[in-house]
Design a protein that fits this description.
It is a single chain. The chain has 6 helices and 7 strands. Strands 1-2-3-4-5-7-6 form a 7-stranded mixed beta sheet, sandwiched between helices.
Length: about 160
């Protein structure tokens, strides 16, 4: 009998697993852009620990193993910035990313008063764009990442998270 993947709030004990998972998962994004200096790959373990304290961070677990994560924080305009969504490559395509997004959206809206959700992904990241559009995000603009990668900015209203649950 197989184990189920569970979604829960990340704890301080998860920091190292999140750090390692993020490094593994974002290798394919780095390869897509020929840029191995993208933010998730150069983030420090200490910075992940700080986000655990300040941000809304969820993990997907398979037993004791962290196999996915996402984080969000409230910006000055009341929007929730959601980022660094990742799922272990061996478990991608099974809805874990969408479940992580829903958990983060619910917490950011209910506990932190988010009025809308905003995220961004690289312009060549078709799989990410498909997921985000499938769960209700719409393109609202473009931006350049701090690493120089052209980004697509997507948003959806906070009330819309219920419709994707």
């Amino acid at each position: 009998m197989g184990m189920s993947v569970t979604i829960s709030v990340a704890t301080e004990q998860d920091a190292e697993q999140i750090f390692r998972l993020q490094y593994l998962c974002f290798q394919s994004e780095a390869a897509l852009y020929g840029n191995y200096r993208i933010a998730p790959l150069v983030q420090t373990l200490e910075s992940v620990r700080q986000e655990l304290v300040s941000d809304c961070l969820f993990v997907a677990r398979l037993g004791e193993e962290v196999v996915g994560s996402v984080r969000g924080s409230i910006t000055e305009d009341g929007a929730a910035a959601i980022g660094k969504l990742c799922v272990h490559p061996r478990l991608q395509g099974h809805g874990i990313g969408a479940r992580l997004l829903r958990a983060a959206e619910a917490a950011l809206a209910e506990e932190r008063g988010a009025t809308k959700f905003r995220l961004h992904t690289g312009h060549r990241s078709e799989g990410n764009l498909r997921l985000y559009r499938r769960v209700g995000y719409e393109t609202v603009g473009t931006a350049e990442g701090t690493d120089g990668v052209p980004m697509i900015v997507l948003e959806k209203a906070a009330g819309a998270y219920v419709a994707t649950a």
